[in-house]
Amino acid sequence: MHFELEEVERFTAALSEFPLPESLEDMQRLERFQMAILSCVESLYRDREKPYLGQVLKRLRATKLWLPSELRALPAVCAQEGRYYLVPPFGGLAPCLLLRCAPPGYTEWYGNMPLEAPAVSKEEESARNLRAGMGDARCAQLREVVEDLYADRIEPSLPEVQERLRLRGWSFAEAQQAVLLYACQKETYRICKPTASKPVVVFLQETPPGFEGWADGIGLLPEASPDMELGLKSVLAAGLAPRLSGGVAGAAAALQSHCRRSLGELRALVRVFLKKGLLCYSGDELLPTEQLKAELNWLQERLSELIVVGAHEVRLGM
């Protein structure tokens, strides 16, 4: 697929009609922004890299001088300035910013217009364009959150992934689009379709070394070893446990500083305690039941006895 110059001009004209953010109504700031864009595009020419929108945005973000609203307005700013050809996205490639007048000494590396691209579905094209428009840093975060869930032994269902993206500053709308970005990277991710009882799950094609399996996930039966149960009871009996609020996820997160277990294991442990009737809900907080309180009292007595015996042995040793 090749674009005629007329098509490029139509695309550029359409983008020029988009309004600019209020901050760029200041002509001096607008001119500085235009010069910054030009500097980034020219640097890509010098580096012999194609000046795709995502690459230009990446270099602008690195300066940390521009507001998110200004960066989003980059295509409109370029279209209104008249310095560039804005080549429409195609074949999974993002829009491209070509200088109408190439810099001195520039040697062409791909001609004035894009080369033929392999045929892709509309869904793949949309997803790849979305990925390119988000920038490399955001795309890296997509993998990081899935790898973190593997490390925590929590099955990476789409709600879990989206929640972690939101914690990294993604907007609700951006997090909702994440599944498209995962779906277009088939070499990296394997997407399990939703069922009546389970949402979409995003698996890595290559399981990380040392992965011990899922400890927590939708539909998974929670399990905890006797040692894990005794460990949590000991923390509670010693009065060291934090306030267990925020449901299972919040309680597990609060326990992480007291128990050397993965977050997934701690979630499973809390679920086991709930299932056995050792913890119960009181509003947003999880509290010990009478059954657990009796066990904790016994543990406290045992701890007191051990302390007394230990002190006696120390005196005899002296």
UniProtKB/TrEMBL annotation:
Source species, domain of life: Eukaryota
UniProt domain DUF7602: residue ranges: 128-213
Protein name, UniProt field: DUF7602 domain-containing protein
